[in-house]
Amino acid sequence: MAIISPSLLSADFTRLDRDIDMINRSEADWLHLDVMDGVFVPNISFGFPVLKGVAKICKKKLDVHLMIVDPGKFTEQVKALGAYMMNVHYEACPHLHRTIQQIHDAGMKAGVTLNPHTPVNVLEDIIQDVDMVLLMTVNPGFGGQKFIEHSIEKVKKLKNLIEKTGSKALIEVDGGVNAETGKRLVEAGTDVLVAGSYIFGTEDPEGRISLLKGL
Description:
By secondary structure, this protein is an alpha/beta fold. Helices cover about 35% and strands about 20% of the residues. The chain is built from eight helices and eight strands, in the order E-H-E-H-E-H-E-H-E-E-H-E-H-E-H-H. Strands 1-8-7-6-5-4-3-2 form an eight-stranded parallel beta sheet. The longest helix is centred in the C-terminal third of the chain and has 15 residues, at about 150-165.
């Protein structure tokens, strides 16, 4: 059974309290928070003042995904939110091992994200130190994109690397996740499904979460 982490990026920002109440009631396990800086990715999403408000009312574990340059300098601010997972991009961290150590020293789980063009073998020397790897199955920075088909094979390659090295890392996938792609991703070895527009763009978001949970 997959871990479900709805993406707040697709919520109604004029009614965040309502949408977070829905998440709290639902079968969702985590809440995925995409922090964008307009530099590493083209868009800007929300910053720590908004995240502090979200953290006060959300009862689910916070899955913080930093799509920003130099993410390590915000470790203490992410910790202050009470975050469960701090996820940084491989492409944004020239000293990735040090950043992972900082996250662990702050008492959080450490995740590493790979963009669609980045092969999984770049993680060979770090895979045993991370708690989760997030594979982007669309290009980061925009919601509602079409799922990149090659991602299924990429999940299988990552699963093989994890098993070969004895790593305990979970596999998370973000982008174009729905009932059809979600089923294929779970079958390929995915542990955590992030979904945004598929959940929030429907009249029955709790039902969609329950459907994904049952994959």
